[in-house]
Amino acid sequence: MTTRDVVFPPNRHALYERDRYSPAVRSNGFLFVSGQVGSRENGSPEPDLRGQVRLAFQNLNAILEAAGITFDDVVDVTVFMVDPQSQFETMWEVVPEFWGAAPYPNITAVGVTWLNGFQFEIKVIAKLPEGAAG
């Protein structure tokens, strides 16, 4: 088996170790980022919904930065939302702060019943620069 080329952001290592997953894996020219939530450094959810979405994007951006890329390199986005019918517009007010300019990446939005105490999660696939590891 090939050793996974894992990308870790600064901090948050205890969260990944506790829950036994990698924050991101480089493979075949892409970066596959695990779902990021609006967790504080101690792993607890940010209570304010807008703040939780911002923090999820900040956590995502820390991983992208650790891999030497930005959100501009993201090609595929999946977001998971608890109760999207009542919270979608509130969540989506925050997205333009991080989304950048057109053309935008593709997106799939999924309504779920449980996110371990969180209301929003985002996972992405990003294209790595030519010659990058993975």
UniProtKB/TrEMBL annotation:
<dbReference type="GO" id="GO:0019239">
    <property type="term" value="F:deaminase activity"/>
</dbReference>
<dbReference type="GO" id="GO:0005829">
    <property type="term" value="C:cytosol"/>
</dbReference>
<dbReference type="Pfam" id="PF01042">
    <property type="entry name" value="Ribonuc_L-PSP"/>
</dbReference>
<dbReference type="InterPro" id="IPR035959">
    <property type="entry name" value="RutC-like_sf"/>
</dbReference>
<dbReference type="InterPro" id="IPR038743">
    <property type="entry name" value="YjgH-like"/>
</dbReference>
<protein>
    <submittedName>
        <fullName>Endoribonuclease L-PSP</fullName>
    </submittedName>
</protein>
<dbReference type="InterPro" id="IPR006175">
    <property type="entry name" value="YjgF/YER057c/UK114"/>
</dbReference>
